[in-house]
Write a structure and sequence with these properties.
18% strand; alpha+beta; Arc Repressor Mutant, subunit A; 55% helix; 185 residues; single chain; two-stranded antiparallel ribbon; 7 helices; rod-shaped
Length: 185
């Protein structure tokens, strides 16, 4: 196979070869005649020994390349060690730590905010927001302080300067109104 490829290459690219004829005798029916066979010699390609200066330059470059590669490998390993000491993979973090690290984007179109005595209460349910808007400010504040700010009836009564019983009665009546609004809509 190699011989065939070489033969094909010689036919396609005759340049670069020196062809010298070789005479051989070949028998034929009518007698003997001389037939020219071609032999191929390569041009150039003599192996030259490098001078001592070229050899010194090659050795210096080889030494420098080895130093650079060795230093680069050491720096890389040192960096990996430093990272291993200081970094913790996400798979090893607890759920609490992941929640503490992350942030959530909230846009004002996703919720409705109500101001309750200096505290902002965000409601994300649209039906509940519409129901809360229909209530009076006093009843809305009682409901928001009770369920969203998790205040007791006594704390709400103190902030709103009302009786605790009135707060409880207003809260229950407001819940009944919201339930009726949900059933209608």
């Amino acid at each position: 196979m190699l011989f065939w490829c070489r033969k094909l290459f010689k036919k396609v690219f005759p340049i670069g070869y020196q062809i010298t004829p070789l005479l051989a005798s070949v028998s034929a029916k009518r007698g003997r005649s001389l037939f020219a066979l071609a032999t191929i010699r390569w041009k150039g390609g003599e192996i030259m020994k490098p001078s001592s200066f070229e050899n010194a330059i090659r050795l210096q470059f080889d030494c420098l390349a080895r130093k650079v590669i060795g230093t680069t490998v050491k720096d890389y390993n040192r960096e990996l060690g430093r990272r291993a000491k200081r970094e913790t993979p996400f798979c090893e973090l607890s759920e609490l730590e992941l929640n503490h690290i992350g942030t959530y984007d909230e846009y004002s179109v996703e919720f409705t905010a109500f101001d309750v005595f200096g505290n902002e209460v965000r409601i994300y349910d649209e039906r509940l927001c519409e129901a809360m808007k229909e209530l009076t400010e006093r009843r809305r504040n009682i409901l928001l302080m009770s369920y969203f700010l998790e205040m007791t009836d006594a704390e709400i009564a103190e902030v709103m300067e009302m009786e605790r019983f009135s707060v409880c009665r207003n809260r229950l009546h407001t819940l009944k109104l919201i339930k009726d609004m949900y059933e209608e809509g």
